Amino acid sequence: MSGYYYGWKSFDEYEDRAEKPRRFGVTEMRSPHYTLSSSHNVLEDIFESMGQFVDGLKFSGGSHSLMPKPFIEEVVKRAHQHDVYVSTGDWAEHLIRNGPSAFKEYVEDCKQVGFDTIELNVGSLEIPEETLLRYVRLVKSAGLKAKPKFAVMFNKSDIPSDRDRAFGAYVARAPRSTEYVEDVDLLIRRAERCLEAGADMIMIDSDDVCKHADSLRADIIAKVIGRLGLEKTMFEATNPRTSEWFIRRYGPKVNLFVDHSQVMDLECLRGRNLGKSHRSVLSSSYFLL
């Protein structure tokens, strides 16, 4: 990485790249999954060379639960030095099985270590909507940011009848079904309620929506952005082609979650040459010393 110089891509006047902290055009990256020493070195290189392009760092899959507390605190400290917020990944769902107080203890532990954002994977939590909203408020009351994560596929037993859906009335939980059905309207309604409860961002799971560039669900993405807005939504972009599709369709202000290896790729796509493929943009932006 040290053998390359990263040339800054200029932006059109109507597409200025805002300084951090940004409300639009947020890039959240997945933490590397190597040994502790290797992960620390990779993150240090990214922060030093590309820190201005990274808005958030997420410990995916509950990986932070397997790391020593001093290591996490050091990573959080280095991230904050580069104005990068730090988010948890999917882990809260494993703790709520220990009782109602377990989630509150989890929030306090995250705050103590230095996390800024707690992600709530709605599909994995499998909790009633009112409980989800209570968790969002609890996270906010602790002074942290809440980021519910939604998938477009719902367990059939979680879908309320039409007469109850509009007002979110209490519905006795049906036995768990093994069938999953697509319901973008339910996703949007629950996301809207989370935002009303204080959630800061809504993460959209890539599964069945935008995991593969060749099968992107443009209709679902358009409906979600149309109802929730660009500022409040973040999409998982699992590969550069998916990132390119989002940037070309919605411009550089779309919020994306990418792998740490795709940060510079994405930032180049946010630049002026939106019509080129990610390979050609990268080749015009890297200069070998």
Automatic annotation (TrEMBL):
InterPro entries the record matches: Aldolase_TIM, ComA_synth, ComA_synth_sf
Q: Which family does it belong to?
A: Belongs to the phosphosulfolactate synthase family.
UniProt cross-references to Gene3D superfamilies, sorted A to Z = Aldolase class I (3.20.20.70)
Domain of life of the organism encoding this protein: Eukaryota
PANTHER family xrefs = PROTEIN HEAT-STRESS-ASSOCIATED 32, PTHR48413
Give the species.
Citrus sinensis
What does UniProt list as this organism's lineage?
Eukaryota, Viridiplantae, Streptophyta, Embryophyta, Tracheophyta
Q: In its UniProt entry, what is this protein called?
A: Protein HEAT-STRESS-ASSOCIATED 32
Which SUPFAM superfamilies does the record match to this protein? (2r)-phospho-3-sulfolactate synthase ComA (SSF102110)
